[in-house]
Amino acid sequence: MYQGDWKRGKASGKGKFSWPSGATFEGEFKSGWMEGFGTFTGSDGDTYRGSWTSDRKHGYGQKRYVNGDYSMMIT
């Protein structure tokens, strides 16, 4: 389910998408895609915070695990 800004019937701007599994993405959308900067939280509690393009991690980001460990990523 998507909550946030819309443009021409598609998620665009700032918003939050939630999946039935409990996973969420909060950040920027463009033409219905996760696009820009945002945070994905998996159903296991791990998070990835960084840049996205066309629903994929792109550029710099940080993966933080539920146990407190983290890693810097370039994708």
UniProtKB/TrEMBL annotation:
One GO CC annotation: membrane
Superkingdom of this protein's organism: Eukaryota
Keywords: Repeat
Region spans: Disordered: 1-20
A Pfam cross-reference name: MORN
Protein name: Uncharacterized protein
